[in-house]
Write a structure and sequence with these properties.
The protein is an alpha+beta fold and about 450 residues long. The protein has 2 domains: about 325 residues, Outer membrane efflux proteins (OEP) (Up-down Bundle), CATH 1.20.1600.10; about 60 residues. The chain has 11 helices and 4 strands; from the N terminus they run ααααββααααββααα. A 4-stranded antiparallel sheet has the order 1-2-3-4, with no helix packed on it. A hairpin with a 5-residue loop joins β3 and β4. α5 runs antiparallel to α10 and α9 runs antiparallel to α10. It is elongated.
């Protein structure tokens, strides 16, 4: 009679031990990997540039595929280095003929094992040529990270600029509201025409519309920044940073020298190494391989057995792989030409960004040191004169518009300067250290 074990649900210490085993089975690395798949909630937290960069580098999906691509390339390199499989064969001779060979009674059966030996180190060279793909992918991942850092910093700069624009327009709205209240009082006591109320309302409406536009721009930029770390809602609070700090100008000659060490040019060096390895492989592919086989032959009519062995090599009459070698040499020349073209492009971009750096630096410093103080004084005087009836509304609005445009131009120059720094660092691959320092010090 068969006996069956009745399963029971573990209780007490049994349940505890099972739970403990499950917890220990999940390694800390696994748990961390599972948690880190979702960006953290930044509800109301003040955001620095460095924090934004860290979030983007950890959670931006554009970087996640490079690890898999690198592992794929390494796997293909391992596969390329594998030797050829041996061959097992069976030969049947002397059968289905005439006379004594009309059947299988006189047939000979040969069972053999054959192996082709690749000479010249072909397997090693195949693996070396394929392994350069992983190196190239690794550098491409680094360049993508540099581009991502630059993109995050650019949006961060645009948010700082939008925040300054809002502050300026809020001040204009406040002045326009004060004007409207002041004009209504004067209209009420009969010292001004009611037409002035309409003009003040239009001025307030215009300032309010400008404020709404600036706030919408800020909202859009915050969304763009949040998408950098793969979130849909910008839940973070205020961002910490300032556009006002500008570092000394960077010398053009020093930048041109640094360009030679740019990782963007390292990509061509890796490509050249890969082409060199492929050319070396093409050269050894032209060398002959050797195939050896050995086996046993059975004579059916006599029942005897005998050993057989053979060696064969291909005759390099029609194909010595010369065309592949020639193609590899042309490929090396192409890499050199492409690198030189990239140097020209990067140098032109670097010169353009350096020109913007110099121009915006001079604009920002001259406006801040010479023009802004005079504009602030003119605005204060115009507002006081307007309250005393010495200025018309048209005059004071003209002074305010000039003040607003000057301040706006000043912050545009600061943003342009910081953007040029970011682009220069992106071209040189210097990890934006200058931008982080200047933007995060308020």
């Amino acid at each position: 009679m068969k006996k069956y074990w009745k399963s029971q649900v573990p209780t007490g210490w049994g349940r505890f031990m099972i739970l403990l085993v499950i917890i220990l089975a999940v390694s800390p690395e696994t748990a961390l990997a599972q948690v880190s798949q979702t960006p953290p909630d930044l509800d109301g937290i003040q955001l620095t540039l460095q924090k934004a960069l860290d979030l983007a580098l950890e959670f931006n999906p554009s970087l996640k595929g490079y690890t898999a691509a690198e592992n794929e390339a390494l796997a293909w390199a391992d596969q390329a280095g594998r030797g050829l499989n041996p061959e097992l064969g069976l030969e049947v001779e002397d059968f289905l003929g005439s006379g004594p060979y009309n059947g299988f009674s006189s047939a000979q059966y040969t069972l053999f094992l054959a192996q082709t030996f690749q000479l010249g180190g072909k397997s090693a060279k195949k693996r070396e040529a394929a392994s350069w793909n992983a190196e190239i992918i690794r550098l491409e991942a680094r360049l993508r990270a540099i581009d991502l850092r630059a993109a995050v910093t650019q949006v961060f700069i645009e948010i700082l600029a939008a925040r300054q624009e809002i502050a300026l327009t809020e001040e204009l709205v406040g002045l326009a509201e004060q004007d409207l209240e002041y004009i209504r009082r004067r209209v009420a006591n009969g010292s001004l025409s009611p037409v002035e109320v309409n003009r003040a309302e239009v001025s307030l409406f215009s300032a309010t519309m400008a404020l709404d536009s600036a706030q919408q721009t800020l909202g859009t930029k915050r969304i763009q920044l949040a998408t950098m770390w793969n979130t849909t809602e910008p839940t973070f609070g205020e961002i910490s940073g300032s556009l006002d700090l500008v570092a000394p100008l960077r010398n053009w000659e020093d930048l041109a020298v640094q360009l030679d060490q740019s990782p963007r040019l390292d990509l061509f060096a890796l490509e050249a190494e890969k082409r060199q390895a492929e050319l070396a492989l093409a050269r050894v592919q032209g060398k002959i391989d050797l195939t050896a086989s050995a086996g046993i032959r059975h004579f059916l009519d006599s029942g005897d057995n005998a050993a057989v062995a053979s060696i064969s090599i291909p005759l390099p009459v029609r194909n010595r792989n010369k065309d592949a070698i020639r193609a590899g040499q042309f490929g090396l020349e192409q890499v050199g030409a492409l690198r030189q073209a990239q140097v020209v492009t990067l140098r032109a971009d670097l010169a353009s960004q350096h020109e913007q750096l110099s121009r915006t630096f001079l604009q920002a410093t001259s406006i801040r040191q010479e023009i802004l103080p005079a504009s602030e004084k003119a605005l204060t005087s115009a507002n006081e004169a307007y309250r005393k009836g010495l200025f018309t509304q048209t005059d004071v609005i003209s002074v305010r518009r000039a003040w607003f445009e000057l301040n706006s131009r000043y912050y545009q120059a600061l943003a342009g300067y910081q953007s040029a720094v970011v682009e220069i660092d992106r071209i040189l691959g210097t990890h934006l250290s200058l931008s982080i320092t200047t933007l995060e010090n308020e």
